[in-house]
Known about the structure:
By secondary structure, the chain is mainly beta. It has strands at residues 7-8, 13-19, 22-23, 29-36, 47-51, 57-65, 71-78, 83-91, 94-96, 99-101, 104-112, 117-122, 128-129, 133-142, 152-156, 162-167, 179-187, 193-201, 213-222, 227-235, 246-249, 252-255, 261-266, 269-276, 283-289, 293-299. It has an eight-stranded mixed beta sheet, with no helix packed on it.
Amino acid sequence: MAAKAVSTHGERTCTVEVAPSEVDPGAELTVTVRASCPHRCDLTGQSVSIRDRDDAELAHANLSADDGETYIAAALVLQAQVGEHVWRAVLAAHERNGLRHDEVATPFSFTTMHHTASVNVWGQPSAIPAGERFSFKVGIGCSAGCKLAGRALSITDQDGVEVAAAKLCDNVWPGTNALYFVEVEAEAPRMPGDFTWQVTTPASDESVPHAAGACGFAVKVVEPPDHEVTVEAFDGATQTPIKGAHVLLHPYRALTDERGVARVKVAKGRYTLCVSGFNYIGHERIIDVTSDVTARAELAVEPEEEVDIR
Length: 310
């Protein structure tokens, strides 16, 4: 029997598109393969496979016509673990009607990232008496909006010593999509000063891998208070109390209640009292605190801006 004549054509061109180039672990990525022959051969039905570093086949498809010269493999949906990946799109060797195309392999790369953890701290007192216990809130959000209830966190002081530990509750902070939070209580240092504490949450590989997260926050410790300052904030024109006015006796802060009253425990000394409120001109005065004292602040409404209607 006569041998069948086979002609080998030029190497097929193969291009690969990956979307997205960075993907969360476990999330899907789409690989699109396009191929063409320099002799404009019909590549319909030719085989394309996606292979990993170990040459294991991860997905398979056949080419179909995209236009007159290019052929495309249906979008291949894949998943990958955390890390940098270099895979290959392999056009299998193919022979038809005496024409042969050799195997072509095109490498492509992408990175699979851990979900990142954004750590936030808020609600700690502006000034904490030495040695007293205080509370604050810690919130953690995932870059992919994952549910983080039960995730562990640790609070360490300025010396790196753990002072508190907690786990996130099944609570999401109002106005956010997935900021899970918990209220934490700790004891302030026994000496006054400005300190930086840190919240950390470890990496986790449960279900979907998450990276570790950390956040530093300020802890201002002052001498134990000697006296109480009562601040009364009133509208100077109507003599009605101002609720929610900001009271500052640096470093102490407070807000007035519905009666326009704020009570602040401070150490003995001289302070600049600042009282401010929305749409009010701020009030400022010097007070000497040698005993319990009451200070009244009458605030004037800010004048309305004149509008030029010319």
